[in-house]
């Protein structure tokens, strides 16, 4: 009889332990995977993959740390995020200062272990976005005006906006249009074009020696009738 009672007690204890929620620090949540930082001009994106897509109602939160401060600080725009990316462009940091990030999954008061992103600078990660382009047509020329990439205050490129060089691709808007590439100034003029002809072009910025930006959208304009 005692042996039977003992066996029954063990079964009950095991059942109760199975039914109880995980204790603090004990969780089946796994850390996010393939965590990457993408920066274009002044837009900062943290992106990751779920470790187990079958687990529902999981959110994610991230922190950052600078070399000057050992304290982890909540990353703005990246708290209790239900998707697999967040925008932390509002963070106020020196773009040349090294920072670290960490991110974890959260569900019902439980958290996964942190996934850490090694130190980097915002400037080092940044890719140059497309410049803004305005065109004016003449009979055998196109006047081009280029504004540097980024926001009006040139946040990411504040010290470099005057150092950009610009590469332009231009072609006639026809199936046989030969494409030409040339370096242009922020305000420049493209000569020796045909009158009453539609030309298309795109521009990208470069910051020597290492950074080359992405092309602008394609702009098309028709040269005017000779006067």
UniProtKB/TrEMBL annotation:
Protein name: Interferon alpha/beta receptor 1
Quaternary structure and partners: Heterodimer with IFNAR2; forming the receptor for type I interferon. Interacts with TYK2. Interacts (serine-phosphorylated form) with FBXW11, the substrate recognition component of a SCF (SKP1-CUL1-F-box protein) E3 ubiquitin-protein ligase complex. Interacts with SHMT2; this promotes interaction with ABRAXAS2 and the BRISC complex. Interacts with TRIM10; this interaction prevents association between IFNAR1 and TYK2.
Annotated compartments: Cell membrane; Late endosome; Lysosome
Domain Fibronectin type-III: 12-114
Signal peptide start-end: 1-25
Domain of life the protein comes from: Eukaryota
Family the entry assigns: Belongs to the type II cytokine receptor family.
GO cellular component, one term: lysosome
Its membrane topology: Single-pass type I membrane protein
Regions crossing the membrane: none
Key words of the record: Cell membrane, Disulfide bond, Endosome, Glycoprotein, Lysosome, Membrane, Phosphoprotein, Receptor, Repeat, Signal, Transmembrane, Transmembrane helix, Ubl conjugation
Entry keyword Disulfide bond: yes
GO annotation, biological process: positive regulation of metabolic process; response to virus
InterPro entries referenced in this protein's UniProt entry, alphabetically: FN3_dom, FN3_sf, Ig-like_fold, Interferon/interleukin_rcp_dom, Type-II_Cytokine-TF_Rcpt
MF-aspect GO terms: cytokine binding; type I interferon receptor activity
Major localization listed first in the record, in broad terms: membrane
Domain Interferon/interleukin receptor: 127-224
């Amino acid at each position: 009889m005692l042996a039977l009672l003992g066996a029954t007690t063990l079964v009950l204890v095991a059942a109760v332990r199975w039914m109880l929620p995980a204790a603090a620090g004990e969780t089946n949540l796994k850390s996010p995977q393939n965590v990457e930082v993408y920066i274009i001009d002044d837009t900062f994106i943290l992106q990751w993959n779920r470790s187990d897509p079958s687990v529902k109602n999981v959110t994610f939160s991230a922190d950052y740390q600078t070399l000057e401060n050992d304290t982890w600080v909540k990353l703005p725009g990246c708290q209790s995020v239900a998707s697999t990316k967040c925008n932390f462009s509002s963070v106020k940091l020196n773009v040349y200062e090294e920072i670290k990030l960490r991110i974890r999954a959260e569900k019902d008061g439980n958290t996964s272990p942190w996934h850490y992103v090694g130190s980097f600078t915002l400037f080092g990660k940044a890719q140059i976005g497309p410049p803004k382009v305005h065109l004016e047509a003449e009979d055998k020329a196109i006047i081009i005006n280029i504004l540097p990439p980024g926001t009006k205050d040139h946040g990411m490129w504040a010290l470099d906006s005057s150092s950009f060089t610009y590469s332009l691709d231009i072609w006639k808007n026809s199936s046989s249009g030969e494409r030409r590439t040339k370096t242009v100034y922020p305000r420049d003029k493209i000569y020796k074009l045909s009158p009453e002809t539609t030309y298309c072009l795109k521009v990208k910025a470069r910051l020597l020696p290492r950074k080359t930006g992405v092309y602008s959208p394609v702009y098309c304009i028709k040269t005017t009738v000779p006067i």
